[in-house]
Structures are given as structure tokens and as C-alpha cells.
Specification:
It is built from 17 helices and 24 strands. It is α/β, with parallel strands linked by helices. The protein folds into three domains: about 230 residues, Rossmann fold; about 160 residues, P-loop containing nucleotide triphosphate hydrolases (Rossmann fold), CATH 3.40.50.300; about 80 residues, no CATH class. The chain is globular, with a radius of gyration of 23 Å.
Length: about 500
């Protein structure tokens, strides 16, 4: 006899204006299982789980916990019911330390009044070690790299006693060894009787770690399968409703006979305490070449991007673009030289959440023809451009006049990628460009990058997805502790070797 589900969501419908995010969706979670939810961007995966966590209220449908009908009006109620969620976009307070964020609303006390920081530090450190996470608990969240922020979110959910843990794209910023460590931890949680819901676009991970897989398409749950009864090909077809296109167009062999387009020599950047964030970086990117950067988050990738794009000033060294110095120039000056930046954190650096979709699609060009005349925005031109780009990049939006916050995370990412690539750049700084994208969307972005490379554009690709780096890059540079530890050709290395170099 089959055990009754721990969680049962039945007939869940959720509308955002004209957008039907969930369409009578069903989902069941068994006690002590790892259950993956897969689907294209905008399929309704995150919305369904945000309803379970109390962030959204359904327009219709029912939720049962241990066969009892429940109403989850807020995350506070969800936490009381033992449901924790690590969202794709983090919910930490930047000005507080990682430790204070983790214990917030569950602070340990001595004598009922005094905050027992030492006890909290010891217990969370032990939990972090169990997970294999390296996190400075005393650092402010605003100073942590994205990977560190994700560690803090996972630790927070577990510290607050989650028996059902929802993870939205949890491996997006982890090295292969760290992914293995996380999955070991998930299996450990499962052995302890906890249940895990994993939202991911990485079907290889799904086939590694999940017990059950639910596929969503256009707001509906179209299948729920045991891992042993399916494969990646079937899951891909269920996700998109047809057999996926496989393979990228042939890449050209880069010509490095001339001078590099981008040249960095002995670039150094130090923190306020004197620690070297970038320690003598030497790096070249030639026209018609994709150079990948591999490294565990926090080893200098973010700082490298910031000094190239003008977001931070280097302490010393040379940075030239087509033989002209761009060291310590402003971001606006560098952008005028046709350098574009696909940022790792789209919410902080890529989009304006409360502005319209069409306004976000012309950011950076909004004060130039054809979008501006005599200082006035030409709304019709912006609208037409947005319609064309939405069709080309298959962006799912209820309308170009809606705030971009109404789009799914993956579709927000498509907006950023489309805007930057449509500006005809010379140099593309792409940081995690397919993070949160489904198979089709990621492959589309990959093809766009290859096409740009074949038009003699220079591309610096920073990614935590080693498969992406190895398949797209002409050369891969490994960064560790702010230094380039080696530059390898993809044909002469593999993910295991890269992962070992990334960890020093």
C-alpha cells in the first residue's frame, strides 16, 4: 500500500493579471524523498513553490499537509509547519552579518535576554562543516559573493528547522566538488527523514540526485515520474512539448596573430584591509575568441569583472581595449567603447524591477536614437523594439507595458541577455549568462555568443557551469585566490581537472 503524501497540492491556479502562471497544477511530495521539479522558464515551477511557502496565495486549489487541509498565508506559517525555502533571488539583509541573518527570528539567548552569539556561531559552524560550506559568518552579507550568500540561505533554512526544504536552482554558483558535497548533504537529510524539493534546469543533476521528477509546462504539471523510469531525452521532450534541438553551429578557429582586443597585465586590487583580491592578473582576449573563467565563487571573478567594466578602480596594472587604456575609466565611458556586461546578479545590476519590460530592454540606449528625440522618450519606438526582441528571444511576458518583476527569473535573464547582445557590442563580458535558463533558452544564448564570436567579437565568459565553459570556450583560465593559476584548452582538460585547479 502506497503511503499517503506528506504534501499534496491539488488544482493550484495562480494568475498575475493576464498571465496564468499556474493552471490547475498538481504536486505530491512523499516523506523522506528528494523530488525535482523541471520545466522551461515561465512554466510555473517557482510560482507553485512560492505558494507552498506562503509567498503567494493561489486563486484556486488546495494544499494538504499530512492529509490535513492547510492554509499557508505567509512564510511565517510555512516555517511553523516545517517548510523552508531558499529562493533563486536571495532574501538576506545586506547590512547584517551572515550569522545575524541566519539566526534572525530564532536567536539563542542566555538568561532569556542576552543574545548567545557564541552558541549560535558554534552550531552554525558545525552545520556548515557538515555541508562542506566555507563561509565567514562575521562578514556582512553585502560583502559576500553570490555563492556565499547562497550558503547563508541554505544554512538559514536548516537552522530554522525545515523538515521540508525547497531549493530553487541551488547549484548555479557551485563548483563540481561543491555540488557533490551538497548532494551528499541532501542524501544525508533524506536519511534523517527530511524531504527535499529541488527546482533546477540541470537535468544531469536531476538524474543524479532525485527520487521523483515532476515536469511542468505552461503552468500545468504534465508528468510525475520515478527517476528509474525516465531519462534526460524524455524529460527534455516533456518540458518543451517536442524533441529538443541538439548541437551548436560550427565554431571558427580564432586568429591570434594580431594584438589582443582586451589586454590585462599585472592588474592588482586590494581590499581595505590590504588583502589582495586580484593579485597580478595577466589575461588576453582576442577578437573572435571566447575566453572562459573558471573558479569557485569568491576567488576574484567579481572583482575582475568590476575593474574591466569600471565598477571598481584597480590599484595598479594595465587594462587596454584595442590598444587604448580603459583602466579606471567610468562605466559609461567603457560602455561607449561598445563593451557590454551581462551581470551575475540581474536584480542588483541588470534590471529595474519596478519599470516596464520595454523600458528595461532599452536601458543604456534610452537617451539615444531611435528611442530618444530632443530629450524625449519615443515610446512607440521602444515598444516596437521590445516586441521584436521578445519574439526573437522567446521571452514570455504578459505585455511590454508590465513591470519586469512580473516575469519569471529566467525570462528576466532573457531580457538582460537580449538587451546587451542587441546593442552590437565589440567586447562582451558575460557573467553566468544562462543561470536560471531552461535548456532551450540556454542553448539559444550559447548560439548567440558563438555567433558573436564568429563575427569577430571578443567574449570573456565567467561561469560556474563547467560544461558550459568547456563547450563554448576557446581557452579556459582558472582563477584561485585572485591569481590566474593556469590557462587550458578545453580539448586538453575535463571538469574534474578544472574543479581540482579551482580548489587550489
Amino acid at each position: 500500500m502506497t503511503n499517503p503524501p506528506l504534501i499534496k497540492m491539488h488544482g493550484i491556479t495562480k494568475r498575475f493579471g493576464k498571465v496564468l502562471a499556474n493552471d490547475r497544477a498538481n504536486f505530491s511530495l512523499q516523506h523522506g524523498e528528494i523530488h525535482a521539479i523541471v520545466g522551461e522558464n515561465g512554466a510555473g515551477k517557482s510560482t507553485l513553490m512560492k505558494i507552498l511557502y506562503g509567498l503567494y496565495q493561489p486563486n484556486d486549489g488546495e494544499i494538504y499537509l499530512r492529509d490535513e487541509l492547510v492554509r499557508i498565508d505567509s512564510p511565517r506559517i510555512a516555517i511553523k509547519l516545517g517548510i523552508g525555502m531558499v529562493q533563486q533571488h536571495f532574501t538576506l539583509i545586506p547590512a547584517l552579518t551572515a550569522l545575524k541573518n541566519i539566526v534572525l527570528a530564532k536567536e539563542p539567548h542566555r538568561f532569556k535576554t542576552l543574545l548567545d552569539t557564541a552558541t549560535a556561531h558554534r552550531s552554525i559552524t558545525a552545520l556548515a562543516e557538515q555541508l562542506g560550506f566555507h563561509l565567514d559568518l562575521n562578514a556582512k552579507v553585502e560583502s559576500l559573493p553570490i555563492g556565499g550568500q547562497q550558503y547563508a540561505e541554505i544554512l538559514k533554512a536548516l537552522y530554522h528547522g525545515a523538515e521540508i526544504l525547497i531549493l530553487d536552482e541551488p547549484t548555479a554558483v557551485l563548483a563540481p566538488q561543491e555540488v557533490t558535497g551538497l548532494f551528499d548533504c541532501l542524501h544525508g537529510l533524506k536519511a534523517e527523514g527530511k524531504s527535499v524539493i529541488l527546482i533546477t534546469h540541470k537535468l544531469g543533476e536531476v538524474m543524479t540526485v532525485a527520487d521523483t521528477i515532476t515536469v511542468m509546462r505552461r503552468g500545468k504539471s504534465v508528468a510525475s515520474l520515478r527517476r528509474s523510469e525516465t531519462d534526460i531525452a524524455e524529460l527534455s521532450e516533456l518540458m518543451i512539448g517536442k524533441k529538443p534541438f541538439n548541437g551548436l553551429k560550427t565554431q571558427k578557429v580564432p586568429d591570434r596573430s594580431g594584438p589582443p582586443m582586451l589586454h590585462l597585465e599585472d592588474v592588482t586590487l586590494r581590499a581595505k584591509n590590504g588583502r589582495a583580491l586580484l593579485d597580478g592578473i595577466d589575461l588576453d582576449v582576442f577578437a573572435g575568441e571566447i575566453v572562459g573563467i573558471a573558479g569557485v565563487e569568491g576567488n576574484g571573478q567579481s572583482e575582475l569583472i568590476e575593474v574591466i567594466t569600471g565598477l571598481q578602480k584597480s590599484d595598479s596594472g594595465t587594462i587596454t581595449l584595442n590598444d587604448a587604456s580603459i583602466a579606471n575609466r567610468s562605466p559609461a565611458e567603457i560602455r561607449r567603447k561598445r563593451v557590454v556586461h551581462l551581470p551575475a546578479d540581474r536584480h542588483r545590476h541588470g534590471i529595474s524591477l519596478n519599470d516596464r519590460v520595454d523600458e528595461n530592454l532599452i536601458l543604456g540606449s534610452h537617451n539615444q536614437p531611435p528611442f530618444c528625440r530632443h530629450g524625449l522618450l519615443r515610446r512607440k519606438a521602444a515598444h516596437q523594439f521590445a516586441d521584436d526582441v521578445i519574439e526573437k528571444y522567446e521571452i514570455r511576458a504578459g505585455g511590454v507595458n508590465l513591470p519586469i518583476r512580473t516575469l519569471s527569473g529566467g525570462n528576466q535573464q532573457k531580457v538582460v541577455v537580449a538587451r546587451e547582445l542587441e546593442s552590437d557590442p565589440e567586447l562582451i563580458i558575460a557573467a553566468h549568462p544562462t543561470r536560471g535558463l531552461d535548456i532551450n533558452a540556454a542553448q539559444f544564448v550559447h548560439q548567440q555568443l558563438i555567433d558573436a564570436r564568429n563575427r569577430s567579437k571578443g567574449i570573456l565568459l565567467i561561469s560556474a557551469d563547467l560544461e558550459e565553459l568547456l563547450s563554448l570556450s576557446d581557452r579556459v583560465a582558472v582563477i584561485y585566490n585572485g591569481r590566474i593559476g593556469g590557462v587550458l584548452r578545453p580539448s586538453e582538460t575535463d571538469e574534474t581537472q578544472l574543479g581540482a585547479l579551482m580548489l587550489g
